[in-house]
Design brief:
Strand content: 15-25%
CATH class of the largest domain: Alpha Beta
CATH architecture of the largest domain: 3-Layer(aba) Sandwich
Distance between the termini: 61 Å
Structural class: alpha/beta
Number of strands: 14
Low-confidence stretches: 151-180
Helix content: 40-55%
Number of helices: 12
Strand order of the largest sheet: 8-9-7-6-12-13-14
CATH superfamily of the largest domain: Methylesterase CheB, C-terminal domain
Order of helices and strands: EHEHEHEHEHHEHEHEEEEHEHEHEH
């Protein structure tokens, strides 16, 4: 196996999905199949021999299920990346949220398609960027170890490390032109609403931020890139852990202070003018930045209601969704916080804002809640 090779073990109790996932893995360049297993117990025995870089792990299995297997993996093999493969029912959605809390990188859904080819196409589209992300994380770990060891090793080429860093940051394909970039007006020293955008690594990040917020005098609106059904489980989990109320947003819902509204998977969310803090609007218009819900759609709607009195927070995530929305808000006088690279699962969305010059502050995840509270207490009416 070459330095650039990346090996994956497929774990699923159904023959058809073991075959589908295996075919997807072998079809990706510089990725090899380390083997297959029908349950977690068999998987652990194979991992001890083959030492794969990643495990595609079914949530529900006999003998040893996905959560128990994940616990063992994170204890004994912390560098192995895990992608959960989940069904769409409510029970599996809750289990998948637990898996993300336990350290799974992300999850993909088993498609509900009549055509095997369509299922393969959907899974390939979902898995490929996550596998690439995991591969870059592997290179970054190796590069850090080489740097800290102080010795030269040939584990991975310099080109691979540079390529991995570039991929991990997921820079926007187009940089804003300095000649047409609008000037920012004076910063508003008032916050009437907090707007959060997050993707890969988001459930865990949100769980470190939202429960630390208390007695908020303003509402929160948030987009977490997730499919239908899973945002409801995320909202319920955050609500149980937090002193503030957290709900999955509903169309026409009045927005209230001290409540967090999470955009439902599969729907764009906007905020419309109304009494007090306005109302929630949901729509099924085409994806933006390949996302629905999209952070940019939500953020762009906010200035019509709140003007410049908006605090944006961009957390870990692939891609650049949210960057143009933050730019619009910041040009009006809004304030922007982004998560730092070290504490991000993937520094894509925060990097897009920072590299565009639109981050007022770059803050480690463990300091974001306190910083939000400081600004809101200082600037809210």
């Amino acid at each position: 196996m070459g330095n650039d090779q990346f090996s994956i073990l497929v774990v699923d109790d159904t023959v058809i999905y073991r075959q589908i996932l295996s075919n997807i893995v072998t079809g990706i360049q510089d990725v090899e199949l380390a083997g297959v297993a029908s349950n977690g117990k068999i998987a652990l025995s194979k991992i001890a021999i083959s030492a794969p870089d990643m495990v595609l792990l079914d949530v529900a299995m006999p003998v040893m299920d996905g959560l128990e297997t994940l616990d063992r993996l994170k204890l004994d093999y912390p560098d192995i990346e895990v992608i959960m493969v989940s069904s769409t029912d409510r029970t599996n959605a809750g289990l998948t949220m637990t898996a993300l809390e336990k350290g799974a990188l992300d999850f993909v859904l088993k498609p509900e398609c009549d055509s095997p080819n369509e299922s393969i196409s959907q899974l390939t589209a979902a898995l490929t960027p996550l596998i690439r992300l995991a591969k870059t994380r592997k290179y970054s770990r190796i590069a850090r170890r080489i740097a800290t060891s102080g010795t030269r090793k040939t584990v991975v080429s310099k080109v691979s490390v540079l390529s991995a860093t570039k991929m991990l940051k997921q820079k926007p394909t187009q940089k804003p032109s300095a000649t047409v970039r609008p000037q920012r007006v004076a910063r508003s020293e008032k916050v009437d609403i907090i707007a959060i955008g997050v993707s890969t690594g988001g459930p865990s990040a949100l769980q470190q931020v939202i429960p630390r917020l208390s007695e908020l005098p303003v509402p929160i609106v948030a987009v977490q890139h997730m499919p239908p059904g899973f945002t409801a489980s995320l909202a319920e989990r955050l609500d149980r852990l937090s002193s503030i109320k957290v709900v999955e947003a509903e169309d026409g819902q009045n927005i209230e202070r001290g409540v967090m509204y999470i955009a439902p998977g599969g729907h764009h969310m906007v905020v419309r003018k109304g009494n007090g803090y306005g109302t929630v609007g949901l729509n099924d218009s085409p994806p933006v930045n390949s996302c629905r819900p999209a952070v940019d759609v939500l953020f762009r709607s906010l200035t019509n209601v709140f003007g410049s009195n908006i605090l944006t927070v961009i957390l870990t995530g692939m891609g650049s969704d949210g960057a143009s929305g933050v730019a619009v808000i910041r040009r009006k006088g809004g304030y922007s916080i982004v998560q730092d690279e070290e504490s991000s699962v993937v520094w894509g969305m925060p990097a897009a804002v920072a590299e565009a010059g639109d981050a007022d502050e770059v803050v480690s995840l463990d300091g974001i809640a306190a910083r939000i509270m400081d600004l809101v207490r200082k600037w809210s009416s």
